[in-house]
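Extended Data, panel c. Modelled sequence:
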Amino acid sequence: MLADRGPLSRADWVLAGLQALARGGPNAVRVEAIARGIRVSKGSFYWHFKDAAELKFMMREVWRIDAGEGVIRRVEEASGSAYERLQTWAGLAGNAAIVGDFHGLKLEPAVREWARYDHAVADMLRGVDEKRLRYLSQLFAQAGNTDNPYENASIFYAAGIGLDPLSESGLADVAMPLYALLDALLSASRPLGRAPAMRGA
């Protein structure tokens, strides 16, 4: 636990807040509840933060950077063609990296729930979604889908988010349907005889 690491830092409190959000939803992001969960006094919190609003701001910023810029960076680091990078996105989604694996926690569903009640979170989430969709649209266009890359990117992106709850319930995989959807979207936008390269080819 964080309490075993000695005096808590500002970053420790932000992580504890994100853990509380992932495990208990927006209502769990309360100073007293977080302090109780990590077995420290509220005094430690007020040493680092003015109030809960400042903590929530930092939580939003940490997630925005990790979920927006970090995910795209991980796909780019995998390199390859545009089609291969889209496959990498699908594979990361299957491993929860796209939908919000944060320090072992499925965080993005909780962030999306939080956005329903907090306008600042909703604005931040919109920015992350826009950044991801712009990136995916560029990849679809580079992969040959020049007529409607944004629409297909939206379908592909939304499918990954929507499959995650089914995967948590053991009712569906995430990666395999996304691979199939990717091939179907790209094949529909190409003339006959110009299918994308097979995975691993």
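The chain has nine helices and two strands. This feature is highlighted in the accompanying rendering.
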